[in-house]
Structures are given as structure tokens and as C-alpha cells.
Amino acid sequence: MKTEAPDSIEMLRRLVAFDTTSRNSNLDLIKYIQSYLEDFGVASTLVPNEEGTKANLYATIGPADMEGGIVLSGHTDVVPVDGQPWITDPWTLTEKPDGRLYGRGTCDMKGFIAVALAHVPAFQRARLKVPMHLAFSYDEEIGCLGAHSLVEKLMGNVPRPQAVIVGEPTMMGVVNAQNNGGGINATFTGVEAHSSMTHLGVSAIHFAGDFIHWLNELQVELAARPPDGGIDTMPGFTTINVGIISGGTAGNILARECTLSWGYRTLPHGNPWEVQRRAEAYVAELLLPKMRARHPDANITLKRRSFVPGLKPEENEEAAKLALEWTGGNRTYAVPYGTEAGIFRAHGIPTVICGPGDISQAHQPNEFVAKSQMQACDTFIGKMIRWAETR
Ligand SMILES: [Zn+2]
Fold first, then answer.
1. Is 315 a catalytic residue?
2. Catalytic residue chosen out of the listed positions 140, 168, 340, 367
3. Any idea what DSSP says for residue 285?
4. What are the pLDDT digits (tens) for 168-214?
5. Which CATH class, in words, describes the domain spanning 8-178+310-390?
6. Is 77 a catalytic residue?
7. Of the listed 77, 139, 141, 378, which one is catalytic?
């Protein structure tokens, strides 16, 4: 059995080399982690997706039957590099004299996973009084799809942990509040006709345009509301965005189909379902009847693509107190973006977000994590180990 591990940066080099863009399988990376853990005598469990093309992984180190452990959570997938002006090879960790480590996923968020894995022998050597659980997911970047089954399996199989640390990039600040986020696909079905005969058909695109206009007005209305609960997530109000629109076949044909991929973010204390419910009501009561009056075959469907529950600070005090002890920080932060933290929190476990790197680097070309951030995370995990030995 091995006892010496690569350091966090060497581990990051290994993880970055796997192209785990969400559209690809993450199994090569997961199998690498599994065999790495095995080398240190740590058994792990895979939670695959339905097709068996991707998997989550969880593992427990230390007294597995004890409550009060810590979950170290991270996602293994990364966003695409397509079309981005990368100066270095995104899949080769490149250290520059500026003290930065470049590569896709360095910051979001293989850096945290690397630190966790590099500490596996230290976890093994320590006299842990409570267990350390590793929980690595797939498909976070496309709507936190993998984490639901991972969290369910983990929570069903280990005694109740005391806290979850989700290692998304926060510059090692402790984040205890995040927005709710929902993604919805809207499909408009019209009736084709020649553009000189608009009375014979229904343009799916024109009705999709009405819907977008309505979303814009809703956004203005919601932005004027005072923030709930006084939490300062930027920008402090509900946001709505239509990210993809597609449809139509020619400039002189009324489009038969138009699809919108859209989504919203609501404040931690806001009603996470309001935007969806209001969109459903608008479609059912106003837009669809208007469309059907033109032709009975017209249709509109709204289908949920993803939902990421938010985090409220007061629910996470226990986790925040611990994390602040280990970072040495004196305040917590709120963020507008979604992470898997809300999914753990929905299972009743105090959860905070705290990891190396700057979120402004996430999804960017020439993404990097500073070496000093990796070191700060090493120190954080070191303090966590001492806490777990002495409690
Ligand atoms: Zn991330």
C-alpha cells in the first residue's frame, strides 16, 4: 500500500489532463481516482448515470460509522474550450512565472479535488475521530445533474455528516448564501405557410418573440423589488436570461418550430418557483389561447431542464463557523451563481462553499488558479484534519 502522495499541484496536473468537458464521459478520470484511492487502501463507490457513460464517486476515510464527519464535494466536469483563444494547451497544466497554474478546470474546480486527493494519505495517517467523505460528481456545469443521485446515495449510506464543503472557487472565502437557479426549455410549435400568406399559418418565432418580450417585462418588474432577507448577492435581484434561440427554415416561410433555452436566478430568500409558475400561467392563460385562435394545431410547452436550490445563511451557520475556523476568515459571503451546495443543503446538511481560485476565472480562456490559492487550500485541509483529530 502506498503512503506517499503527489502534492496538490502534481495531482492537479494529473486531473487537468483528462478532458472531462460535460459532453464527454468522465469515466477515465473517475477510474483514475478510484485506483488512486485503492493504492492507499481506500474503497470507493461509483454512482453511474442511467446510460453508464458517466459516474459520481464517493469514499469515506476514517471512522466510517461515526456521525459528524465532513463531506468534501466537487464536480469533475469542466466547460468546453471550443472557440476560446487559449495560449497554452488547456489540457496540460502550465505553470507560469507569475505564480499561476493554467489549464481548463484549474479553478473550476479540479483545484479543490486535487487538494482533497493529495491529502488522502494524511487523512489515513491522522487519528480522525470523525470521517472524511469525498463526493465527486459529473454534469455540474450543465445543471447539477449528477449531484442529485450522488447526494441521495451518500446520505443514504453514511452516518449524518456535520458539514459539507463544496470547493467551488471562492478565493478560500466562506460562502454561506447562494441564489436559486432554474433552467427551462420552451418549445413553440406553429403552422408553416408562405410568408405572403400569413393568415394561413402561425409563426412559432413570432410567438416566441412575444414570450421573450414578456420575460423582459417580468425581469424589469422583479428587479424593482427590494431584496428579500437583506442578503447582498450581486446584483441583488432576480435575473432572467434567454441563452439559446433556434427555429425556422427560410426567410419566406412562417416557422413551424422555435425553441428557447432560458433560465432564471432568484435570491436566496426569494420564491424559487415564482418565475416558472408565472411563465406557465402566462402561456396557459394568454399566449397559447392567442396562438390557438390562429390555428388549433399550435402549441407551447415549457419543460424544466435543471433546478439548483439556493442556500440561506442561517441554515448554514454550523458549517460556516467551522470553515471560518479553518480559513482564519472573519466574515461570510453571498454569491449569485448556483452550485451543488443547495442540493446537499436540501438534505438538511449545513453546507458552505469554499475553494481555491477566483470565480471570475471560471469558464474563461486561459483559466488559472494561483499557486498561493492551492497552498491556502492545503492549509485549510490541514486545519480540518487537526480539528477532526481533536474533537
Ligand atoms: Zn464549478
1. no
2. 140
3. I
4. 999 999 999 999 999 999 999 999 999 999 999 999 999 999 999 99
5. alpha beta
6. yes
7. 77
